[in-house]
Specification:
The complex is a heterodimer of chains A (289) and B (262).
Chain A lengths: L1 H5 L6 E4 L13 H10 L4 E13 L5 E13 L3 E5 L6 H8 L7 E6 L2 E4 L11 H5 L1 H5 L4 H14 L15 H13 L5 E5 L7 H17 L3 E6 L2 H7 L2 E5 L6 E6 L11 H21 L3
Parallel strand pairs in A: 4-8, 4-9, 6-7, 7-8
Antiparallel strand pairs in A: 1-5, 2-3, 2-5, 9-10
Chain B lengths: L5 H23 L11 H10 L1 H35 L1 H14 L4 H12 L4 H24 L3 H9 L4 H38 L9 H10 L3 H29 L13
The chains are: A alpha/beta (289), B mainly alpha (262).
Chain lengths: 289, 262
């Protein structure tokens, strides 16, 4: 099955764009950019260098969402990104997935698929057809697409709910179907946008354990966006703290703890406090602005 | 789907009986002439005595309604999709479609007869003109109702524009399109009457609309009422037939926990 999921792996996509008119600083020195790219280790799945993104809202007002974000994600690494709401976390994921283009800086990523905050299951399809959606889009015949999704359903603890409509599933199950759909897109990078944000505390804890073991069985490069510092420390290899809008990297924590991790482990608690401290400090620093 | 039980049939039956009773009393008071308002029992008698005649006139009208609604659904739906996929087309077509609803049929009826003669075609044209509009409007709204997030999801799964349409927009628009179809069905019957009134027909049994107009002139008011009652029943039957089809075509729209669509 792992080979199935990797079958759509494509060469890395490079997006490079500079908006020079209003922001001369965004215009990159080509020599410098070249040096930066050369320094990028080849095993990186994702590399961002000084990526900027600005939204123009009504009346031409410009709202910077990301101001010079640089980060790298190694192949097979799980990077968690935490930050206050509105710091551009979702924008960052959409940039990595190619759903938006940066206004400045340099972005390179292996093909990435986004799992949005809401499950967005299609109400007229049963759970299996929903999970198989990416396969159908890739022109796989319906029967075969359903078979591939079905084999994943066993691993995800969804057996017996193949024919259930999304409205008949619990929040946790819907999220797992959405995760199956994300996996079956067959892309090497998964971008998870607060996948458990809408769930109650108990279901969320279950889903975190479940995601941890699911990724343990079939490792992927994962970028997990969350506002839950504990979730980040429990799941990630590395935690990146973003500052409030406009988002920039305010700090980084190497987790490096063995799995499975318990939420009350002393090391986990300590790292959680450290991440929280970074988050608070970056928010406080931004207050006067 | 529940079978119609007594408790479900009772309210509509009671209301119909109460209205019939009031009508009967009013007609029997004699303040109006039976040429103006025949009593329900007179209408029932006319319906009974002229059952064969009315049935023969129902046939062409029912055919007009069925074919007309089918063409109106196809046209309304196809226009909605075209208008949805192309905004220049939308800007070009939409005002004309709205304006088309204000065209008095009498203005274009001679042209329709000139083109297509006294057969069923000019009637179909009139019904389509009257009925395509609700289908167009509801379907366009349905196609646009899909959340942008949903389309973003399909993009991240590498769906093409056509696939986003086929997998998300089209099924999402189906309940709205079916609502439009129900409105269209309800007006299709009066559309058939207008079509028959406005375009001449040859032949003995020319349709219920013709019959009603002829009976009113000949002061056969009870028979005109009997024919109108058949049109009334036809509209109700069409409407509920489509409601059943809707449950089969878009069952998710009726699920109590999927409150967004209906």
């Amino acid at each position: 099955m792992a080979t199935d999921l990797q079958s759509r792996t494509e060469p890395p996509v490079t997006t490079k764009r500079a908006h020079g008119e209003e922001e001369p600083s965004a215009r990159r020195d080509p020599a410098g950019a070249g040096a930066g790219a050369a320094a990028t280790a080849s095993e990186d799945a994702i590399a961002l260098r000084e990526v900027e993104r600005t939204f123009v809202v009504r009346r031409g007002e410009r709202v910077p969402a990301l101001a010079g974000v640089s980060l790298r994600v190694a192949r097979g690494e799980l990077l968690a990104i935490v930050g206050p709401s509105g710091c551009g976390k979702t924008t960052l994921l959409e940039l990595i997935c190619g759903l938006q283009a940066p206004d400045g800086g340099e972005l390179r990523s292996e093909p990435a698929v986004l799992m949005p905050q809401h499950d967005l299951l299609l109400p007229w399809l049963d759970a299996l057809d929903n999970a198989a959606l990416a396969q159908r889009v890739a022109h796989v015949a319906r029967a075969q697409a359903r078979r591939r999704a079905a084999s994943l359903f066993e691993q995800l603890g969804l057996s017996g709910f193949e024919r259930a409509r999304p409205s008949e599933l619990s929040g946790g199950m819907r999220q797992r179907v959405a995760f199956a759909r994300t996996l079956l897109a067959g892309k090497p990078v998964l971008c998870l946008d607060e996948p458990f944000g809408a769930l109650d505390a108990i279901t969320r804890a279950e889903m975190q354990d479940w995601l941890s073991s699911a990724l343990g069985r079939a490792p992927r490069t994962v970028v997990l966006v969350t506002h839950d510092v504990e979730e980040a420390v429990l799941l990630a290899d590395r935690v990146l703290v973003l500052s409030p809008r406009p988002g920039r990297v305010a700090g980084e924590i190497e987790v490096g703890l063995p799995r499975p991790r318990g939420r009350t482990d002393a090391a986990v608690v300590a790292l959680r406090e450290r991440a929280l401290g970074l988050l608070t400090a970056s928010s406080a620093g931004a207050q006067p602005a | 789907m529940r079978s119609p039980s007594l408790s479900r049939l009772l309210p509509p039956l009671l209301l119909a009986l109460a209205l019939l009773g009031a009508w009967e009393l009013y007609a029997d008071l004699g303040t109006t002439s039976s040429f103006v308002l025949p009593a329900p029992h007179a209408v029932a008698a006319a319906l009974w005595e002229n059952a064969g005649f009315i049935a023969a006139n129902l046939r062409p009208t029912a055919v007009e309604v069925a074919l007309g609604i089918l063409l109106a659904l196809l046209l309304g739906f196809a226009l909605a999709v075209a208008v949805h996929l192309s905004s220049p087309l939308r800007r070009a077509v939409y005002p004309l479609a709205v304006g088309s609803q204000a065209i008095p049929i009498a203005v274009i009826a001679p042209l329709l007869v000139f083109w297509w003669g006294f057969g069923v075609l000019p009637k179909l044209a009139v019904i389509v003109l009257i009925c395509f509009f609700p289908v167009l409007v509801t379907t366009v709204d349905g196609l646009r109702a899909i959340e942008p997030e949903q389309l973003k999801l399909l993009r991240t799964l590498d769906a093409s524009r056509w696939q986003a349409f086929r997998f998300a927009e089209l099924p999402a628009a189906l309940p709205a399109a079916l609502s439009g179809a129900r409105i269209a069905l309800a007006v299709a019957v009066i559309g058939a009457y207008i079509a028959e009134s406005q375009t001449a027909t040859t032949g003995v049994h020319a349709g219920l609309g013709h019959e009603i107009n002829a009976d009113l002139i000949a002061l056969q008011t009870p028979r005109a009422y009997a024919a109108a009652f058949v049109l009334f029943a036809l509209a109700i039957a069409c409407f509920y037939a489509l409601s059943l089809a809707e449950r089969a075509l878009a069952p998710w729209a009726h699920h109590p926990r999927t409150g967004e669509t209906t």
